[in-house]
Amino acid sequence: MSRIHPTAIIDPGANLHESVRVGPYSIIESDVVIGPDCRIESSTRIYSGTHLGQGNRVCHGAMLGCEPQDLSFDPSASRPLIIGDRNHFKEGTNISRGVKTESGTLIGNDNYFMGSFHAGHDCIIGNHNVLGHGSVLAGHVTIGDHVFISGIAAIHQFTYIGDRVMIAGCAKIVKDIPPYSIGDGNPARVSGLNSIGLRRAGFSAQTRRLIKQAYRTIFQSGENIGQALESMKLQSQAPEVDNIIHFFERSQRGVTAHR
User: Fold this and answer.
1) Residue ranges of E strands in 170-259
2) pTM higher than 0.85 for the full model?
3) Which of 133, 164, 206, 242 has the CB geometry, 3.0–4.6 Å to 114, for a possible disulfide?
4) What domains appear along the chain, each with residue ranges and CATH number?
5) Residue 245 contacts residue 233 (beta carbons within 8 Å)
6) Element (H, E) at 106
7) Rounded Cα distance, 74 and 226, in Å
């Protein structure tokens, strides 16, 4: 039995591995590359310049690599959407191609995109993230690893979300959210550590204590951020603390304040 449904439209310029399955009424444009064991379900559209690794699932009505929702968009400046392995795109997911950075839009491995999720152009999404139903990333957003974004959260352009962050439902994120924390509110504040997530991930009590102490130094010591980071460098005892320091040092938009 053919793995390609007869109603699917696949441009001759697309490159699909022989194991790829394509459902009814899906459209795959030229210059698309789809790796082994991918499952493209019904009524999806995969636009030119999109590359998928292996083991991805694209559910009904999803659109990958579409034009950015940017009034200044120039088709001649299009950049690709590059997707890693074992990602799951639920119904109605919409992810834009790149347009303003050489690398384009980048998605790592093992991410789960719930229904009606949208990511704008030139976003970078890491690995093992869960992105909730109806949540929205504006252009140039960077998401770390093991992040959980709850439903209907909205994240401002050029914002950076650190590793193992939990974003609460309906949150409005306008500044960077540092690693291992919870972002909540409108506009969002850091409401505490993502303690449950850290415990579930197997972080030891000692590591969790060091993370908590690092944030006390940053937010409660009375020092400015630069002084607090220098103090932490002298006392750092864990790679997680180094990750926090690096996050604050590279932040361009500014880090969300503690509630």
Assistant:
1) 172-173, 181-185, 188-193
2) yes
3) 133
4) 9-143 (2.160.10.10), 198-250 (1.20.1180.10)
5) yes
6) strand 105-107
7) 40
